[in-house]
């Protein structure tokens, strides 16, 4: 079972990158095989049909599509911006769907979010569920959300909960 972790913020002190690292630590401790994809790898140009026609799909997005194909499940750790999805993640979903319209089909996707706000990015998670359902992915029911996020709130997230979160979809 290989889990691909993808972070949705390139900010140096990103809370979502920190949440991603916490999840990776838990995966390592519990013997869950995984791969990491740096958020920098999502830095493709905003999807534009003319650009695609002229230059094709950016190599980084082709590599992402391959990594998704090779993974048994994908964990998206996304910030929330104005009640919705990180543009980095949305753009990556769009480009990957251009590599292969079935790239997300039946893929197990787990959703996580951290925010300094009280809702912990849950509205971004909810929007991501809709988008991913429409490209055919299966999103797991539990999300790992950290409201009022900071280093200590992320470190204090219950380990047993995080293991259960990561194990979702194992029997699919
Ligand atoms: C344009 C913008 C809109 C934001 N909107 C929301 C929001 O709707 N909900 C929320 O919880 N946080 C919101 N935030 C705060 C982000 O959650 C916060 O900046 C967070 O640290 C970003 O993720 P990162 O730390 O992983 O980079 C917003 C931040 C920006 C810059």
Automatic annotation (TrEMBL):
It holds the Pfam family FMN_red. Transmembrane segments: none annotated. Keywords: Flavoprotein, FMN. Residues 1-146 form the NADPH-dependent FMN reductase-like domain. Its cofactor is FMN. Gene3D superfamilies: 3.40.50.360. One of its GO terms (cellular component) is cytosol. GO terms for molecular function: FMN binding; oxidoreductase activity. InterPro entries: Flavoprotein-like_sf (IPR029039), FMN_Rdtase-like_dom (IPR005025), NAD(P)H-dep_reductase (IPR050712). This is Flavoprotein. It comes from Idiomarina zobellii. The lineage of its organism: Bacteria, Pseudomonadati, Pseudomonadota, Gammaproteobacteria, Alteromonadales.
